[in-house]
Design goal:
mainly alpha
């Protein structure tokens, strides 16, 4: 197993992780900005108001995107398993 091979597998893993987590982070950021704007306009600074909408939005996004996320993880796993013969030599 060469150093290039390990770096290739690590970059493949990081790319897959970013691809899966990216939409969740974007939804969380968008909801966070919307709540922050709402708090700035109304001057209501309740701590639960910042967390509850983000949690709900991310949970809904996970529920909607779960089949796609599982498909991405399965293709990553298949790719890693297909690299095993290369690593054995």
């Amino acid at each position: 197993m060469t150093q290039e091979f390990v770096l290739q597998v690590a970059s493949y893993a990081l790319f897959t992780a970013f691809k899966i987590v990216g939409p969740l982070l974007l939804v969380g950021m968008a909801v966070g900005i919307a709540v922050a704007l709402l708090q700035a306009v109304t001057q209501v600074h309740e701590m639960t108001l910042t967390f509850v909408p983000k949690i709900l939005a991310v949970a809904i996004t996970v529920a909607l995107m779960l089949p796609w996320m599982l498909d991405q993880l399965l293709s990553f796993t298949r790719g890693v398993f297909s690299m095993i013969p290369v690593a054995a030599h």
